[in-house]
Write a structure and sequence with these properties.
With 416 residues, this protein is of the alpha/beta class. Helix content is 45%, strand content 17%. It binds nicotinamide-adenine-dinucleotide.
């Protein structure tokens, strides 16, 4: 039978498995399987040639029992409502497993930012915020960056929101530039948080990170910071990295500065001096200790999971592993750090950003990283201990920790 690669079907199937392990009340299960609210927008945007192009945008508030919805906005040509629903569900479990007082949401626009000018991107970003403005806010729903959106886009969206509302409210969106109320350490936060969970896993498995090798798929915000911090902070050797155009390999380790300089000049990692070209497929199957998917969904499937050689798969991307691949990797004894645990560092520092915005009092990078480390390490061990105690795999364990917390908030509110 062909694998179902619909991300929302996968998110629901993952929840279903955890619901069985938790003996979750069927009414609660039915409620948690669906988004609480979703918005579909038609966005007219004036293009540089004078014509108006119509874009489709979405915002899903999956569950806000534990606090305002929280989640990024993705600009992507293949965006679908089901991708946004899945990502919003995973945000709900992510904020719960990280134990920050927020719910889960996500947004997206079907567009190809690579084919748009800076002016067109600004007008699209403002159009999206105009459409969503009455449904977001510090106490309702707080967006952030995701694939193909960045601090500049957050700045345009913040400005549009503040023009409409007539007051300053920096906490309406996170991942902002520092000058507009962004947090120290937000840009590298997802990568840093993931590396803290890798550090804890390596300790459990008896792997010395200074002697370990890793491969990273995806070289955007998350992938490139993971490479740099793995090198600078944890002394790890990254032998391969990739982006959508292909990958590069260097047995002696790739220097982050050299790859970054090549990427700046050429717009892709392939061709970086002193490296061999490899495909994304080959990267996933390399003989390394740690494999880090940091690109998009459905990269490890039933077709390639049995060829993975890594001991640890640290899912910095959302949804990189299908349920079939999960089963195969678990049977092979691979330690999976599941996505909504591994990549929770971003939302954790986004939460710190909201707190700082509310107090108008800002913390330095060291304090951010200390608090991030505490949150990530606590979350990691809650999941690891659940997996050991209940004899389930790490993904089911992460769901059990998160679903318990969300279900308790739903129960206390009297919704179910
Ligand atoms: P980004 O847009 O900055 O980078 C994405 C990278 O993936 C680019 O290098 C792109 O070339 C590459 N890519 C795209 N399609 C690919 C393919 N088919 N094969 C190989 N590489 C491909 O995005 P990002 O913010 O780094 O996000 C990456 C992943 O991390 C996503 O799954 C995102 O949801 C997740 N994530 C991001 C954050 C964050 O704070 N940015 C937080 C949590 C999770």
């Amino acid at each position: 039978m062909k694998e179902n690669l619909n991300p929302f079907a996968i998110a629901q199937a993952q929840l279903d498995e955890a619901a069985v392990a938790l003996h979750l009340d069927p009414d609660m299960h039915a409620f948690l399987r669906e988004p609480m609210r979703e918005f579909h927008f038609t966005l007219p945007v004036r293009m540089d040639d004078g014509r108006t192009r119509t874009f489709k945008g979405f915002r899903v508030q999956y569950n806000d029992a534990r606090g305002p919805a929280k989640g990024g906005i993705r600009f992507h040509p293949d965006e679908t409502i089901d991708t946004v629903r899945a990502l919003a569900a995973w945000m709900t479990w992510k904020t719960a497993v990280a134990d920050v007082p927020l719910g889960g949401g996500k947004g997206g626009v079907i567009c190809n930012p690579r084919e748009m000018s800076r002016g067109e991107l600004e007008r699209l970003s403002r159009a999206y915020m105009r459409a969503v403005s009455r449904y977001v806010g510090l106490t309702q729903d707080v967006p952030a960056p995701d694939v193909n959106t960045n601090p500049q886009i957050m700045a345009w969206m913040l400005d549009e929101y503040e023009v409409l509302s007539g007051h300053r409210e920096p906490g309406v969106i996170t991942g902002k530039p520092l000058e507009l109320g962004g947090s120290a350490g937000r840009s590298p936060a997802t990568a840093m948080g993931g590396l803290y969970t890798i550090r804890e896993t390596a300790q459990i498995l008896g792997i010395n990170l200074a002697e370990a090798t890793c491969a990273i798929q995806g070289y955007g915000n998350v992938g490139s910071f993971t490479h740099r911090l793995a090198h600078d902070v944890f002394d790890m050797k990254t032998v391969a990295v990739s982006d959508e155009f292909g990958g590069i390999y260097g047995a002696n380790g790739l220097a982050p500065d050299v790859v970054a300089a090549h990427l700046r000049r050429h717009g892709k990692v392939v061709g970086c001096p002193g490296t061999e070209e490899i495909s994304n497929q080959e990267l996933l199957e390399l003989d390394v200790d740690i494999l880090i998917p940091a690109a998009i969904e459905n990269q490890l499937t039933s077709l390639n999971a049995d060829r993975v050689k890594a001991k640890i798969v640290a899912e910095l991307a959302n949804g990189p592993t299908t349920p079939e691949a999960d089963n195969i990797l678990n049977e092979m004894g691979v330690y999976i750090i599941p996505d909504f645990l591994c990549n929770a560092g971003g939302v954790t520092v986004s939460y710190f950003e909201m707190v700082q915005n509310s107090y108008q009092f800002y913390w330095d990078k060291d304090l951010i990283n200390t608090r991030l480390d505490q949150k990530m390490t606590t979350a990691f061990h809650a999941v690891h201990n659940m997996a050991k105690e209940r004899q389930v795999d790490t993904r089911v364990a992460a769901y059990m920790v998160a679903v318990n917390r969300v279900a308790e908030a739903v129960r206390l509110r009297g919704w179910v």
